[in-house]
Amino acid sequence: MKMKRNIHLGIVVAAIILLVASWTSSCSKGGGVNVFSVEDDIKLGKQLDQEIKSDPATYPLLDETAYPVAYSHILRITNALLNTGEINYRDRFEWQVKIIRDDATLNAFCAPGGYIYVYTGLIKFLDKESELAGVMGHEIAHADLRHSTDRLTTAYGLDFLLSMALGKNSSTLKDVAANLALLSYSRKDETQADEYSVKYLCKTDYEPNGTAGFFQKLVDSGQSGKTPAWLSTHPAPDKRVENINKKAEACGTGQAFETRYSEFKSSLP
């Protein structure tokens, strides 16, 4: 009887190993396999948000009560994107937005669960509200399409997934959340987020190719060296401009909202 139980256990473990190996193989080939649930996305995003709030040296968040005008501008843009009817998890994710006071960083990111962070460096670098809306739409797409936890599935690999399958995962939620901001997206993820930024903006009053404006300014100003690392490992900005503009052709035209964007920038410290 004991031998039979051992044989049975061995078969189960072998099956789990084969299953996890299959998951890992699919992920490495861009198969879109994700071992995290939507609720996990929400929990991970909340933990990352807590980590950011507890580390003002790295993430100096702009105080909402001290800069209400700035936050009224960023919330207007956020709500315009969220209310397009194109966001899968519009009613399930938190969708909070924070401004990080760092003029040297041209970046924005959106954690799982809809926690959005935009650097003042990016806001001040751009000239049109449609451009910032495009970049924010791109980052919202990463969260809504669950690219972050897709990448975690790949990044942690077979050992992590096997320990999860056996209920012996020693990694804490804090450890996982701390690594979210360090993940780089695949070429496929970046292309899809570019496409979805156009899809979102098409349902607003913004110019549908707003994201292309961001990349075009990088090209024109020679600022690529100050951008996030993913720009150096994916198609060049000028190629992305071409692809985004082509995708946006079917949407017609929209507005840049340069005047009120100038007011937004003036409201920042």
Helix content: 55-70%
Overall shape: it is globular
The major sheet is characterized as: 3 strands, mixed
The whole-number mean of residue pLDDT values reads 81
Low-confidence stretches: 2-7, 9-31
By secondary-structure content and strand pairing, the structural class works out as: mainly alpha
User: How many structural units, i.e. domains?
Assistant: 1
Order of helices and strands: HHHEEEHHHHHHHH
Distance between the termini: 74 Å
* Alpha carbon gyration radius: 21 Å
Distinct helical segment count: 11
Strand residues, percent:
5-15%
Give me a quick take on this structure.
This protein is mainly α and 269 residues long. It is built from eleven helices and three strands; from the N terminus they run αααβββαααααααα.
Walkthrough of the structure:
With 269 residues, the chain is mainly alpha-helical. It has helices at 2-28, 38-53, 68-82, 120-125, 129-144, 147-165, 173-180, 187-201, 210-221, 237-248, 258-266; strands spanning 96-100, 108-111, 115-119. It has one domain (12-266). It has eleven helices and three strands; from the N terminus they run αααβββαααααααα. It has a three-stranded mixed beta sheet. Mean pLDDT is 81; it is low at 2-7 and 9-31.
